[in-house]
Specification:
The structure is a homodimer.
Chain A lengths: L1 E4 L1 H11 L1 H17 L10 E4 L4 E8 L3 E9 L13 E7 L5 E6 L1 H19 L6 E5 L5 H12 L3 E5 L3 H11 L6 E4 L3 H5 L4 E4 L6 E5 L9 E4 L8 E3 L1 H5 L2 E4 L2 H7 L12 E2 H5 L13 E4 L4 H17 L4 E3 L13 H5 L6
Parallel strand pairs in A: 1-6, 7-8, 7-10, 8-9, 10-12, 11-13, 12-16, 14-15, 14-16
Antiparallel strand pairs in A: 1-17, 2-3, 3-4, 4-5, 5-6
């Protein structure tokens, strides 16, 4: 039998541990896997494009476990009341090739993206950062804030979205969360006031500029999660030239990230090298750091590992009959005989 | 909600329709899709290899639906009582990117391989073929025979396996099937006696020769399904030079099929062109035809379409919460609020 984790199971995990502790634990799995970066076989992702969007398969393996995520990106889905991104993933045993776990990943992708953002910020933002500007209050907004609150000590969030109802929903959702104060603002400039960390998470299509060089104060950490596919960016390219730019996996980031705007030789630092202690994160108090995040298969691998462990720990393991269980592996036909299926 | 088809659901379909009718119906879906071959975006498969085996993702799309199959191949799994091949697949809506159906495909891969073999034989074997030699009585053996019985009129099967217990199991499994007579034989030569069709389906590792040129009578159709990965073949290469060789998808077959033994320019006929009426199948009564089958993503696409339709038709639709259902697609966090998850 294969373990199955659906939406209800993820919610059960969140209910049992609390969302903030889930984000912390998940970040530890991601950190551990980034630290052993060189153990991973980083296979190219497969993208199947269409006029409305893209469907991608993102595989990765460490030689013991293989994981892949199915994820789509369809910006216009919201017009039809659908999510722009849905995802699910599978963890498998490399030695036997058997799938071990199938899990929803729409909700957990938001969790892992937030955990990864906050993890990177722990190495890149000034330790005294308390105020975050949030530009774009979409599906990932609340998760980002909870991760930054619990992992980096953010106390105040100044949010701006071109759609006031999105900011209002965001403020309402976080109103009951202790220790975080949300200020809804009317412009990007108002949102940026006193910002130690700027998170850009707009659904900007094409090459938008939601933030310019002159709006960024020295010492800021920018967490750019909105630009994540070819032809979609949200930062003024001058910001890149003025920042220490950190990415997950350069071959992918140069195609999908903010750095698609600059030369292929543009200098970047790989996050795993900072986590592994091979390079420093922030070099000076007044340096601008930029985590140009596009989301990488390793983070999904870590998330599946975490989900498998935590559901077993709290005793919330469901299984599905995705793989047959036969007494003699050469006798697949016995499944029919056993269950009384007639041949004719 | 996403539809889920597990082992039990496939068995329910087989119980309701009968295995032979399932094979016939499935073959129609495969035939229809091969006929519109040029509608498909045939993406390269991703393989992740390891010392024990390989895990592959096989995607394909016709611009309206996207499908992929996860499949492993681990020849030594039988030593541990495990299947050498397990598989599952997903059908998705290209317009929205949403997954529609998740299905087991270990059992259905055996069904679709059998349906494809018999479909090809309808175009390639002599219409008066009644006797099949089956070399190798592994996991796929019974399914092959049922498909050839119901789709091409095979009445007699002469089976040979190096493991007598495999032949015995095969004979036992088919003993109650009306209209098919199984003869267990002690050698390949004895198995080949009077054969109109030869199916080779051994688990031969490396380059084995289970059949030589001189053993093949004029007018025979060879259904070669055992050689299906690089470095694994089961036919004497001289047979290739003496046959009209038909393949599914040349770029894949030249790497994985029997034709990996010959030059890249070796002439082959594509099965879809025969099905679409662009080329003839068998050209003469005494011609030797050879279907060098490795299994192609299109056949899995057809299988998922068939399973979706048939389970809806017989009212056997189960769903799983693999994708969240939210009132406002920008408000993913509402899932937590709705279910009373505390943030802290």
């Amino acid at each position: 039998m294969v373990q199955y984790i659906g939406i209800q199971d993820v919610i059960e995990v969140l209910r049992t541990l609390g969302t903030e502790r889930v984000l912390q634990e998940l970040a530890k799995y991601i950190e551990d896997d980034f630290r052993r970066w060189e153990d991973f076989d980083k296979v190219a992702r497969i993208a199947s494009g269409s006029p409305n969007g893209v469907i991608e398969l993102m595989p990765i393996s460490d030689g013991r476990q293989f994981a892949f995520k199915y994820v789509n990106g369809h910006p216009c889905n919201t017009n039809a009341g659908k999510l722009t991104v849905t995802a699910f993933g599978v963890l498998a045993d490399v030695a036997s090739g058997y799938p071990l776990l199938l899990s929803e990943m729409t909700l957990t992708t938001a969790l892992r993206t937030a955990a990864t953002s906050a993890l990177a910020a722990r190495y890149l933002a000034r330790p005294d950062s308390r105020t975050m500007a949030l530009i774009g209050a979409g599906a990932q907004a609340e998760f980002q804030v909870l991760a930054f609150k619990t992992m980096t000590g953010i106390e105040k969030v100044r949010v701006f979205d071109v759609d006031p109802s999105a900011s209002a929903r965001f403020a309402r959702n976080l109103a009951t969360v202790p220790g975080i104060h949300v200020h809804v603002t009317q412009s990007v400039d108002e949102g940026l006031q006193d910002a130690d960390i700027i998170t850009t998470a707009t659904a900007a299509k094409k090459h938008a500029v939601v933030l310019t060089r002159s709006q960024v104060r020295p010492g800021t950490h920018i967490n750019a999660i909105g630009g994540d596919c070819p032809g979609k960016t949200e930062l003024d390219r001058e910001i890149l030239h003025a920042s220490r730019v950190v990415v997950e996996y350069p071959p992918q980031s140069r195609v999908e990230g903010e750095i698609q705007q600059v030369d292929p030789g543009f200098p970047v630092v790989e996050l795993w090298r900072i986590i592994a202690g091979l390079e420093v994160g922030r070099r000076a108090v007044d340096e601008v750091t930029l985590f140009d995040s596009v989301g990488f298969a390793l983070e999904d691998f870590s998330t599946l590992r975490f989900l498998r462990d935590i559901t077993q720990e709290i005793g919330a393991v469901r299984t599905i009959d995705l793989v047959p269980d036969v007494a003699d592996p050469r006798d697949l036909y016995s499944l029919l005989r056993r269950d009384g299926v007639l041949a004719a």
